[in-house]
Amino acid sequence: MSGADGVVSPFAEADERTIEGALRPKRLDEFVGQARVREQLTLVLHGALGRGRVPDHVLLSGPPGIGKTTMAMIIAAELGSPLRITSGPAIERAGDLAAVLSTLATGEVIFIDEIHRLARPAEEMLYLAMEDFRVDVVVGKGPGATAIPLDIAPFTLVGATTRAGLLPAPLRDRFGFTAHLDFYEPAELEIILRRSAGLLGVPLHDDGGTEIARRSRGTPRIANRLLRRVRDYAEVRADGVVNRLTARAALEVYEVDEEGLDRLDQAVLGALLRRFNGGPVGLSTLAVAVGEEPETVEVVAEPFLVRAGLLARTPRGRVATPAAWAHLGLTPPPAYQGGTPWPPAAAGEPALFDLAQADGDGRAPRGPDGASDQTGE
Ligand SMILES: Nc1ncnc2c1ncn2[C@@H]1O[C@H](COP(=O)(O)OP(=O)(O)OP(=O)(O)O)[C@@H](O)[C@H]1O
Ligand SMILES: [Mg+2]
User: pTM of the full predicted structure?
Assistant: First the structure.
């Protein structure tokens, strides 16, 4: 029960997405948090409506489970327009995209999820479509092939991506408005939980909401999921009421700790502290120590640990912060300075072992795009 399918994973399985549909806010004023983005979007959408024009294309970026799909649906609802939903991986050829674009009615909103995964030819077709509301349909093959320009109705594209950094600049530049959705404050998650509990018919006490919100990693999807898990517990083991007591007991069963760390996070942090004295240690060594694939550690556990200020990625390897020692209730070695190899070499004597080097893997972590990724995104 850890990794990408764990109870605090930001990703959602297909059946969970169905449940989520019922919990999505439908209008901008129901959408909790992200105040600045909401304000800006209101101006963009209602400004265009007032002028009788289609609004600029909108790019939504942010981590998984933070409300991008929800916001795309809200945009269409605010405009009173139909919404077409597709995704980067679903559009395999430029022709697939041309087929969708050529059937749009004026003012329709098309949502392309995971737009950073669009195939290159489709992406290039999109440039022209976004800018001039036109696509070039290529007929025939080889030297006889001709491009037939086809006008399409003015539309608004809403793109969503968890990896804005992977979008090619020409595509990014064609969005008139880019909204970055960020993690939520616990107080905002409490409001979301109250709303969800109302929709699900779950009796939720304020102290229960506070307890769940604090452990939800700033992510509405996780908050809603933990609420459902705590409800199960409260119904089976108690009187069905979600309060501080049932929330604490349930989350202990699911191995979600005070800060929202699950078993994998705790294993990673525990190994880093207990076996490697706080680091630095290379990713692959750390992964072996917890019996996981390096990618699982890097993609699932680390981003949250970094954001929670418990782990740092340095060019020499992974390092525990002083807060990590406190979190696990351990005392750092006396000489620990957050990244100094420990035990430190006595003066004039070569270090007994330097984990970062012994490892051969103390280099900066690399994201899938090959770029150095120190931010934990
Ligand atoms: N601001 C919000 N207010 C209330 N509920 C929210 C908010 N943001 C997200 N949610 C809820 O969280 C769940 C996940 O949101 P959503 O599907 O929009 O995330 P996403 O950013 O599209 O994730 P992914 O990157 O995985 O596609 C939904 O059930 C939605 O109702
Ligand atoms: Mg989504």
Answer: 0.83
Total Cβ atoms within 10 A of residue 323: 14
Residue with tokens 């035990």: 343
Could you give the residue range(s) of every CATH 1.10.8.60 domain in the chain? 186-253
Q: Is 141 a catalytic residue?
A: no
The third-level CATH classification (topology) of the domain covering 34-180 is Rossmann fold (3.40.50)
pLDDT digits (tens, 9 = 90+) for 82-139: 999 999 999 988 889 999 999 999 999 999 999 999 999 999 999 999 999 999 888 8
263-357: in CATH 3.40.980.10: no
End-to-end CA distance of the chain: 23
Q: Which of 70, 156, 161, 162 is catalytic?
A: 162
Distance 359 CA to ligand 2 centre (A): 38
Q: What is the per-residue pLDDT across 284-325, written as a single tens digit (0 to 9) for each?
A: 999 999 999 998 888 888 888 998 899 999 999 999 999 999
Residues with CB under 6 A from ligand 1: 12, 20, 23-25, 31-33, 64-70, 162, 192, 220-221, 224
Q: For atom 28 of ligand 1, which residue has the closest CA?
A: 20
Pairing of strands 317-320, 311-314: antiparallel
Q: Which fold has domain 186-253?
A: Helicase, Ruva Protein; domain 3 (1.10.8)
